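job 3f2a | input accepted
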Amino acid sequence: MAEGRRFLASQAWVGGAWARDVLLVAGSDGCWQQVLPGCSAALAAGAEVLPGPVLPGLVDAHSHAFQRAIAGLTERSAAGREDFWSWRDRMYAAALRISPAQLEAIAAFLYTELLAAGYTQVCEFHYLHGDVDGRPYADPAEMSLALVRAAQRTGMGLTLLPTLYMRSGFDATGLREDQRRFASTPDSVLRIAEAVRKQATPMLSAGIALHSLRAVDPGALRECSAAARAAGMPVHIHVAEQQLEVEDCLRAQGCRPIEWLLQNAGLDERWNLVHATQSTPEELQGVQRSGAAIVLCPTTEANLGDGVFDLPTWLGVGGRWSLGSDSHVARCWSEELRLLEYSQRLALRQRNVAARAAGRESTAAVLLQGALGGGSAASGLPTAGLAVGQRADLCVIDMSAPALAGIPDDHVLDALVFSSPGSRMARVVVAGRDVALEPPTREFTEAMRSLW
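job 3f2a | predicted structure (452 res):
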């Protein structure tokens, strides 16, 4: 890690607002040692002056890296109904073919894209465990380690979430043939997590993911959750994404998915519920009381026709949440935040919904702070912004972008979120070190040509 790096930002996002003349000092441990707004010229002497407004890095709290290989390739209609389930069948075409080397190439390309957009940590909800025939690799962590290598090559922080996937539905006893690579047990995913934790650094950690209630039986869910609690690891689970999932859970379990988790899973601050799109106000209140967080993936949820999350209720009860790019139809957090707000406006026929729900003036500020607030819960690392003890991540906004020309300083964040499609950062620092923002295009292109 860089030792004693000192940066000076004329404008930086500190504690939920813009601060001026901020001295940022990164220690040898890759965390912020000092964050001093209003710093005098004498105190800042010798610091590296950053060339634009500075934001914290964000956690991408939900990623399936291999799905970057199908972004843009599922947008043609076939015969029959088009919904999440038809998309899933097409996604399996990639899942059943991709090799460890191809996964590494695709993930390295993706992670550089995410870094350039201002994400500095990614949580990989990873369920491609076996080889193309479904057999275990000689090293059961083979596919997981491809993701670790991709993160290390690019400088992206990684929380690996080896994912338990045991059955194809509530009434099934095993997986479908086209799900054969997902096969896993509580022991197998816990072993992968432990192998990664032995390599842990400020940039690398591990947790556990449970694919969904339909894919994991209750006993296995409790076993993994208990092990994660004992090890202090985060737990992630897809839940209540689709209405059919809710209906199937009601039929099989006698209650809705989030209801079941609240009653049976011992939810606490380690839990991260991904999507929660089909939730009731009462369920959201229960989740907030439990301390669990929610991971929202607006562009994927829109792409798949999932529905609209009840953001006003969640903000109204003070719930924690983070942001995920999920299937990677978009790789930019400002696009995720914009769509999160716009979906609320379309559903409610109102403006500045998040700001009003949170009782603040700036919608963009509410959204950014919300995404930051749940990041540490999702990643299991101190990734909550420009503050002492948090990891020394920062992003410099590119003020030469045409969409930001002439924008007053106090409105830069608003413009970045609501009038800057595809925003790209001028510079990104992760754990005190600069990272390259140009993706390894040749490897990615070769992998795509081989797959398709």
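job 3f2a | The chain is about 35% helix and 20% strand.
job 3f2a | closed
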